[in-house]
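QA checklist item 7 of 12: single-chain prediction sanity check.
[x] sequence parsed
[x] length recorded as 768
[x] structure emitted
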Amino acid sequence: RVYYLSLEFYMGRSLQNTMVNLGIQSSVDEALYQLGLDIEELEELEEDAGLGNGGLGRLAACFLDSMATLGMAAYGYGIRYEYGIFAQKIINGEQQEEPDDWLRFGNPWEKARPEYMLPVNFYGNVIDTPKGKKWVNTQVIFALPYDNPIPGYNNNVVNTLRLWSAKSPVDFNLKFFNDGDYIQAVLDRNLAENISRVLYPNDNNFGGKELRLKQEYFMCAATLQDIIRRFKAAKFGTRETTRTNFELLPDKVAIQLNDTHPSLAIPELMRILIDIEGLQWNAAWDITVKTCAYTNHTVLPEALERWPVDMLQSILPRHLEIIYHINFLHLQDVQKRWPGDLDRMRRMSLIEEDGDKRVNMAHLSIVGSHAVNGVARIHSEIIKSDLFKDFYELTPEKFQNKTNGITPRRWLLLCNPGLSDLISDKIGEDWTVHLDQLLQLKQWSKDANFQRAVMKVKQENKLKLAQLLEKDYGIKINPASMFDIHVKRIHEYKRQLLNCLHIITLYNRIKKNPAARVTPRTVMIGGKAAPGYYTAKKIIKLINAVANVVNNDPIVGDKLKVIFLENYRVTLAEKIIPAADLSEQISTAGTEASGTGNMKFQLNGALTIGTLDGANVEMAEEMGLENIFIFGMTVEEVEELKQKGYNAYDYYNANPELKQVVDQIQNGFFSPNNPDEFKDLADILLKYDRFFLLADYNAYIKKQEEVSNVYQNQAKWVEMAINNIASSGKFSSDRTIIEYGKDIWGVEASYEKLPAPHEPRELALKDA
């Protein structure tokens, strides 16, 4: 069995996805229509399950869909947050957060499983007994599982996503009851149950909060008890122990750690095997390493988890002991391989000693896993050559690449029925589970009739989105304009600010020469900023300030419109992506591990403007450089610039157009009531910019001019769009999951269709 452990599952809505995967969408549609009901109206009532921040959480959701579709015995395990990612409201151009009370009206997709409730321990101390170490005097909190169905596509497989909710034990705070403060004792049960209250809203940033550590351990401890219960019960559906030989565990169980957030699974599995099951250290360690595998999602230093030793000492004293011993043996290995290299010992230790002592969770994950993977080829290479270079030199055989993918069910079949039908008319319906078959579309990329059909679908999607946006924002949109879309979490490395510089440049050019012919654009930027991320929030405010100036200038008219898309989430992505003409993927080379939004846009026939970063590199390779707008420094050139020393003023002074744009931001052109409003952003651009925006500005502007020119030639544009769609087969999460199965988990995909519930088994087998 495969266990995918993640602190985030960004599922979105389930109604339409379930109908699509069960093959009953049109029947249900028709039935409701005859009852006088509109299915789309009903679908709009469902809340998003927003149990994730962005890419990492959405990847987990796509993976669940693929594992079920490929007939794998796989379980997702996470936390049932009472409050998911906050709802974003834009008030006076600023982000305000509202709690996402998504369970307010109940969740019809979940089934509580109180019969499988499990205890989780915190605090306490460790004692020596004749039988070994014992963790005692702990505070117990119960983990109550809720099961959510994950239907495979058209194969009658239904897997399970099990999410844990924290429940206070009946005897919680017993001393209060004895003191007679009964009311306070009952109220304090909330403290225990706070563990599953809320998703931490940080993307690519480590907060180091105690409650977050408790969430991570809570999920790992409950999940591992479940895994071991199932392993011992061997026979399906039975509860008595029939399997006791733990050497078989790695043959029967694969645990995938989605980033380091579930990395406490490693010491927890060791604790169970040694303290509870009585194994010797070496046997337990061998089993643990063979069972666990770790996926790295980022190279940004501020995102890496480093837990203070004193926090672990207090909350998880036994685990800290185990981590220390893992480190002791690990450093012995390092010492054997590189005698006397003390600096390497320091670099490779699981414990960082500078300042307050911390546990480096990535190092723990690498040492405790048999496989470590990045999420795109370039990212996996950077991990080996830079971030984890020392570990690669110690155990090169552990390091792999698994380029991310997306599920074509939600991200084409469900969200873009017009394009799906068009594709199926040409090549049949098999592409939904064999996405590489889209390659056949190449033969019609120059076919005028097919081009017209593809353009018609895109135009319909754009009109539908334009209506929605007019309803929500009261802005009239020119549907003939290029829809230039930049949606993802707001972060400096993703360079929404660079997009902003382009918008202002475009605006200045129109003002300077109103009679010139321009390609009309509607630029849409959307995404949430972490509530404590000051710079990201300022960037949102700037985008809205620029939009305010541009959209109300009569000279600009409908040549340029700027919209900040409020509350970007899975459900909004499903509406926006099919309507996109241009996809913005403009992170500084070497910072975006993979990206998955890039793949969704490609699959839906948008063209990409992007850097050679993350999966953009492989997308360009699949479709050819003639079908994508690549610009900017490469990873090597960024490194070169860092070595040489980056001086933003060199670019600022050499380019009058750029200087004007930065000055406008700096001098309050977009904030007349507060001229200093965006001074901090200008300061970052000119003095403290880790992501070299001004160094890539010129290349970006030039490439955007090329984009505008190609858009004028609609036949050329749609030919490129068809080539994009035809080249997106590699980026199905089915392909990704097949590779995980083959190279890491030791499980095979199966395309066998199980008999439907109403079919007799024998008959189904005979047919097969």
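[x] summary fact logged: Residues 408-632+702-731 form a domain with the Rossmann fold fold (CATH 3.40.50.2000).
[ ] second reviewer sign-off
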